[in-house]
Description:
- This protein is α/β, with parallel strands linked by helices and 281 residues long.
- Helix content is 37%, strand content 20%.
Amino acid sequence: MACLQARSRQCKRVLSRTNSTPAGLVLRHNAGMSTARTTLLQSLDDLLQPERFKDYGPNGLQVEGKPQIARLVSGVTASRALIEAAIAQNADAILVHHGLFWRGQDGRITGWMKERLRLLLAHDINLLAYHLPLDAHPELGNNARLGQLLGWTCDAHFGEQALGCVATVDYDNAQSLAQHIEQVLGRSATLVQPDARPVRRVAWCSGGAQSYFEAAIAAGADAFVTGEISEPQTHLAREMGVAFIAAGHHATERYGVAAVAAQMAAQHGIEHLFIDIDNPA
Ligand SMILES: [Zn+2]
Protein backbone atom coordinates (compact mmCIF):
# COMPACT_ATOMS: atom_id res chain seq x y z
CA MET A 1 0.00 0.00 0.00
CA ALA A 2 1.47 3.32 -1.00
CA CYS A 3 0.40 6.82 -0.42
CA LEU A 4 2.63 9.26 -2.15
CA GLN A 5 1.97 12.12 0.23
CA ALA A 6 0.62 10.42 3.30
CA ARG A 7 -0.25 13.59 5.11
CA SER A 8 -2.35 15.18 2.39
CA ARG A 9 -6.11 15.19 2.80
CA GLN A 10 -6.58 13.73 -0.66
CA CYS A 11 -4.37 10.79 0.19
CA LYS A 12 -6.10 10.08 3.48
CA ARG A 13 -9.40 9.91 1.66
CA VAL A 14 -7.96 7.48 -0.87
CA LEU A 15 -6.48 5.28 1.84
CA SER A 16 -9.58 5.20 4.00
CA ARG A 17 -11.74 4.32 1.01
CA THR A 18 -9.29 1.65 -0.02
CA ASN A 19 -9.32 0.12 3.42
CA SER A 20 -13.10 0.09 3.63
CA THR A 21 -13.72 -1.31 0.18
CA PRO A 22 -13.49 -5.08 -0.33
CA ALA A 23 -11.75 -5.04 -3.70
CA GLY A 24 -10.94 -2.94 -6.69
CA LEU A 25 -9.36 0.13 -5.14
CA VAL A 26 -5.81 -1.07 -5.27
CA LEU A 27 -2.68 0.94 -4.72
CA ARG A 28 0.71 -0.20 -5.94
CA HIS A 29 4.04 1.29 -5.24
CA ASN A 30 7.00 0.54 -7.47
CA ALA A 31 9.22 3.55 -6.92
CA GLY A 32 11.77 4.41 -9.56
CA MET A 33 10.45 2.39 -12.51
CA SER A 34 8.98 3.89 -15.66
CA THR A 35 7.63 2.77 -19.01
CA ALA A 36 7.16 4.41 -22.40
CA ARG A 37 3.72 5.85 -23.09
CA THR A 38 3.58 3.86 -26.32
CA THR A 39 4.32 0.62 -24.44
CA LEU A 40 1.63 1.29 -21.84
CA LEU A 41 -0.89 2.14 -24.56
CA GLN A 42 -0.08 -1.04 -26.46
CA SER A 43 -0.63 -3.09 -23.28
CA LEU A 44 -3.95 -1.37 -22.64
CA ASP A 45 -5.06 -1.99 -26.22
CA ASP A 46 -3.96 -5.63 -26.02
CA LEU A 47 -5.90 -6.09 -22.79
CA LEU A 48 -9.06 -4.16 -23.63
CA GLN A 49 -9.25 -4.62 -27.42
CA PRO A 50 -11.03 -1.35 -28.23
CA GLU A 51 -11.26 -2.27 -31.93
CA ARG A 52 -14.02 -4.74 -30.99
CA PHE A 53 -16.35 -1.94 -29.86
CA LYS A 54 -18.42 0.75 -31.47
CA ASP A 55 -18.03 3.45 -28.84
CA TYR A 56 -19.27 6.96 -28.06
CA GLY A 57 -15.79 8.49 -28.00
CA PRO A 58 -12.14 7.70 -28.79
CA ASN A 59 -10.52 4.92 -26.74
CA GLY A 60 -6.82 5.12 -25.90
CA LEU A 61 -4.70 8.28 -25.79
CA GLN A 62 -6.96 11.34 -25.67
CA VAL A 63 -4.40 13.96 -24.62
CA GLU A 64 -0.70 13.44 -25.26
CA GLY A 65 1.72 14.24 -22.45
CA LYS A 66 5.27 13.20 -21.58
CA PRO A 67 6.72 10.15 -23.39
CA GLN A 68 7.78 8.29 -20.22
CA ILE A 69 5.39 7.22 -17.43
CA ALA A 70 6.46 6.39 -13.88
CA ARG A 71 3.31 7.31 -11.99
CA LEU A 72 -0.21 6.45 -13.12
CA VAL A 73 -3.36 7.83 -11.49
CA SER A 74 -6.69 6.15 -12.21
CA GLY A 75 -10.18 7.54 -11.68
CA VAL A 76 -13.70 7.27 -13.04
CA THR A 77 -14.03 10.61 -14.86
CA ALA A 78 -11.53 13.12 -16.28
CA SER A 79 -13.05 15.89 -14.19
CA ARG A 80 -11.10 18.96 -13.13
CA ALA A 81 -11.02 17.62 -9.57
CA LEU A 82 -9.39 14.37 -10.71
CA ILE A 83 -6.87 16.21 -12.89
CA GLU A 84 -5.96 18.54 -10.00
CA ALA A 85 -5.58 15.58 -7.64
CA ALA A 86 -3.37 13.82 -10.20
CA ILE A 87 -1.22 16.95 -10.53
CA ALA A 88 -0.86 17.04 -6.73
CA GLN A 89 0.40 13.46 -6.92
CA ASN A 90 2.88 14.27 -9.72
CA ALA A 91 1.15 11.86 -12.09
CA ASP A 92 2.58 11.28 -15.57
CA ALA A 93 -0.64 9.77 -16.86
CA ILE A 94 -4.30 9.51 -15.87
CA LEU A 95 -6.40 6.49 -16.86
CA VAL A 96 -10.16 7.05 -16.82
CA HIS A 97 -13.42 5.42 -17.83
CA HIS A 98 -15.03 8.71 -18.88
CA GLY A 99 -12.62 10.76 -21.01
CA LEU A 100 -13.00 14.27 -22.36
CA PHE A 101 -14.29 13.67 -25.87
CA TRP A 102 -17.67 12.28 -26.86
CA ARG A 103 -19.58 12.01 -30.07
CA GLY A 104 -21.89 14.99 -30.51
CA GLN A 105 -19.71 17.58 -28.78
CA ASP A 106 -19.37 20.82 -30.74
CA GLY A 107 -15.57 20.77 -30.45
CA ARG A 108 -15.00 24.21 -28.96
CA ILE A 109 -12.31 24.51 -26.28
CA THR A 110 -14.06 26.88 -23.92
CA GLY A 111 -15.12 26.99 -20.26
CA TRP A 112 -14.70 23.70 -18.35
CA MET A 113 -13.08 21.99 -21.35
CA LYS A 114 -10.47 24.73 -21.69
CA GLU A 115 -9.66 24.48 -18.01
CA ARG A 116 -9.30 20.68 -17.97
CA LEU A 117 -7.12 20.73 -21.09
CA ARG A 118 -5.06 23.65 -19.80
CA LEU A 119 -4.23 21.72 -16.64
CA LEU A 120 -3.31 18.54 -18.52
CA LEU A 121 -1.16 20.35 -21.08
CA ALA A 122 0.51 22.65 -18.55
CA HIS A 123 1.64 19.60 -16.56
CA ASP A 124 2.41 17.41 -19.60
CA ILE A 125 0.06 14.69 -18.30
CA ASN A 126 -1.20 11.96 -20.62
CA LEU A 127 -4.93 11.30 -20.54
CA LEU A 128 -5.85 7.71 -21.39
CA ALA A 129 -9.51 6.79 -21.63
CA TYR A 130 -11.31 3.51 -22.24
CA HIS A 131 -15.09 3.45 -22.18
CA LEU A 132 -17.05 0.40 -23.37
CA PRO A 133 -13.94 -1.85 -23.49
CA LEU A 134 -13.49 -1.09 -19.79
CA ASP A 135 -17.10 -2.02 -19.04
CA ALA A 136 -16.81 -5.29 -20.89
CA HIS A 137 -13.48 -6.91 -19.96
CA PRO A 138 -14.41 -10.37 -18.63
CA GLU A 139 -12.17 -10.20 -15.51
CA LEU A 140 -11.15 -6.58 -14.93
CA GLY A 141 -14.09 -4.70 -16.48
CA ASN A 142 -16.71 -2.75 -14.57
CA ASN A 143 -19.36 -5.44 -14.92
CA ALA A 144 -17.02 -8.28 -14.03
CA ARG A 145 -15.62 -6.45 -10.97
CA LEU A 146 -19.07 -5.39 -9.79
CA GLY A 147 -20.22 -9.00 -10.10
CA GLN A 148 -17.18 -10.24 -8.18
CA LEU A 149 -17.78 -7.72 -5.39
CA LEU A 150 -21.39 -8.83 -5.07
CA GLY A 151 -20.61 -12.54 -5.38
CA TRP A 152 -22.35 -13.02 -8.74
CA THR A 153 -20.98 -15.23 -11.53
CA CYS A 154 -21.84 -13.94 -14.98
CA ASP A 155 -23.20 -16.83 -17.08
CA ALA A 156 -24.97 -14.94 -19.88
CA HIS A 157 -24.79 -11.59 -21.64
CA PHE A 158 -27.43 -9.21 -22.96
CA GLY A 159 -27.93 -5.69 -24.31
CA GLU A 160 -25.95 -3.45 -26.63
CA GLN A 161 -22.69 -5.13 -27.69
CA ALA A 162 -23.46 -7.85 -25.12
CA LEU A 163 -22.16 -5.65 -22.29
CA GLY A 164 -24.72 -6.73 -19.68
CA CYS A 165 -24.29 -9.76 -17.42
CA VAL A 166 -26.77 -12.21 -15.93
CA ALA A 167 -26.22 -14.50 -12.94
CA THR A 168 -28.14 -17.01 -10.88
CA VAL A 169 -28.62 -15.70 -7.33
CA ASP A 170 -30.77 -16.36 -4.28
CA TYR A 171 -32.38 -13.34 -2.66
CA ASP A 172 -35.67 -13.41 -0.73
CA ASN A 173 -36.85 -10.40 -2.70
CA ALA A 174 -35.60 -7.32 -4.52
CA GLN A 175 -35.39 -5.40 -1.27
CA SER A 176 -32.84 -7.79 0.19
CA LEU A 177 -30.92 -7.58 -3.10
CA ALA A 178 -30.94 -3.78 -2.87
CA GLN A 179 -29.75 -3.93 0.75
CA HIS A 180 -26.84 -6.16 -0.22
CA ILE A 181 -25.82 -3.73 -2.97
CA GLU A 182 -26.09 -0.74 -0.61
CA GLN A 183 -23.89 -2.50 1.93
CA VAL A 184 -21.20 -3.40 -0.62
CA LEU A 185 -21.15 -0.06 -2.43
CA GLY A 186 -21.53 2.02 0.71
CA ARG A 187 -24.36 4.19 -0.59
CA SER A 188 -28.12 4.16 -0.96
CA ALA A 189 -29.81 2.72 -4.03
CA THR A 190 -33.12 3.53 -5.72
CA LEU A 191 -35.38 0.47 -5.81
CA VAL A 192 -38.55 -0.04 -7.82
CA GLN A 193 -39.95 -3.29 -6.51
CA PRO A 194 -43.14 -4.40 -8.25
CA ASP A 195 -43.73 -7.38 -5.95
CA ALA A 196 -42.09 -9.34 -3.13
CA ARG A 197 -41.15 -12.45 -5.06
CA PRO A 198 -37.67 -13.97 -4.78
CA VAL A 199 -34.86 -12.92 -7.10
CA ARG A 200 -33.30 -15.96 -8.78
CA ARG A 201 -31.78 -14.27 -11.83
CA VAL A 202 -30.13 -10.86 -11.62
CA ALA A 203 -29.03 -8.83 -14.65
CA TRP A 204 -26.62 -5.94 -14.32
CA CYS A 205 -24.75 -3.35 -16.35
CA SER A 206 -22.72 -0.56 -14.77
CA GLY A 207 -23.23 3.17 -15.31
CA GLY A 208 -26.03 4.69 -17.35
CA ALA A 209 -27.49 1.48 -18.77
CA GLN A 210 -31.12 2.11 -17.84
CA SER A 211 -32.08 1.76 -21.52
CA TYR A 212 -30.97 -1.90 -21.36
CA PHE A 213 -33.86 -2.72 -19.02
CA GLU A 214 -36.05 -4.34 -21.67
CA ALA A 215 -33.13 -6.44 -22.90
CA ALA A 216 -32.52 -7.53 -19.29
CA ILE A 217 -36.18 -8.51 -18.97
CA ALA A 218 -35.93 -10.46 -22.24
CA ALA A 219 -32.84 -12.21 -20.84
CA GLY A 220 -34.99 -13.59 -18.02
CA ALA A 221 -34.02 -11.28 -15.15
CA ASP A 222 -36.10 -11.00 -11.97
CA ALA A 223 -34.20 -7.80 -11.19
CA PHE A 224 -31.98 -5.39 -13.13
CA VAL A 225 -29.16 -3.42 -11.52
CA THR A 226 -27.49 -0.41 -13.12
CA GLY A 227 -26.23 3.02 -12.11
CA GLU A 228 -29.08 5.30 -13.06
CA ILE A 229 -32.84 5.29 -13.48
CA SER A 230 -34.96 7.45 -15.79
CA GLU A 231 -38.67 8.08 -15.60
CA PRO A 232 -39.88 5.33 -17.98
CA GLN A 233 -38.15 2.48 -16.09
CA THR A 234 -40.43 2.82 -13.07
CA HIS A 235 -43.46 2.06 -15.20
CA LEU A 236 -41.74 -0.76 -17.07
CA ALA A 237 -40.72 -2.36 -13.77
CA ARG A 238 -44.27 -2.21 -12.44
CA GLU A 239 -45.89 -3.38 -15.67
CA MET A 240 -43.40 -6.18 -16.38
CA GLY A 241 -43.02 -7.34 -12.77
CA VAL A 242 -39.23 -7.00 -12.83
CA ALA A 243 -37.42 -5.04 -10.13
CA PHE A 244 -35.14 -2.10 -11.06
CA ILE A 245 -32.25 -0.97 -8.87
CA ALA A 246 -30.21 2.18 -9.57
CA ALA A 247 -27.07 2.00 -7.43
CA GLY A 248 -25.17 5.03 -8.79
CA HIS A 249 -23.39 5.61 -12.09
CA HIS A 250 -20.14 6.52 -10.35
CA ALA A 251 -20.45 3.88 -7.64
CA THR A 252 -20.95 1.05 -10.13
CA GLU A 253 -18.02 2.20 -12.31
CA ARG A 254 -15.27 2.68 -9.71
CA TYR A 255 -13.87 -0.80 -9.90
CA GLY A 256 -12.91 -1.55 -13.51
CA VAL A 257 -10.54 1.35 -14.04
CA ALA A 258 -8.77 0.70 -10.72
CA ALA A 259 -8.36 -2.97 -11.58
CA VAL A 260 -7.03 -2.30 -15.08
CA ALA A 261 -4.59 0.37 -13.82
CA ALA A 262 -3.38 -1.97 -11.06
CA GLN A 263 -2.75 -4.64 -13.67
CA MET A 264 -0.77 -2.16 -15.80
CA ALA A 265 1.25 -1.07 -12.77
CA ALA A 266 2.12 -4.69 -11.96
CA GLN A 267 2.97 -5.48 -15.58
CA HIS A 268 5.22 -2.44 -16.12
CA GLY A 269 6.54 -1.90 -12.60
CA ILE A 270 5.15 1.63 -12.35
CA GLU A 271 3.36 3.40 -9.50
CA HIS A 272 -0.41 3.48 -9.40
CA LEU A 273 -2.86 5.41 -7.29
CA PHE A 274 -6.65 5.22 -7.66
CA ILE A 275 -8.28 8.51 -6.69
CA ASP A 276 -11.98 8.46 -5.94
CA ILE A 277 -13.64 11.82 -6.57
CA ASP A 278 -16.90 11.30 -4.75
CA ASN A 279 -20.04 11.65 -6.86
CA PRO A 280 -23.56 11.09 -5.56
CA ALA A 281 -24.91 10.49 -9.12
ZN1 LIG B 1 -20.25 5.56 -17.38
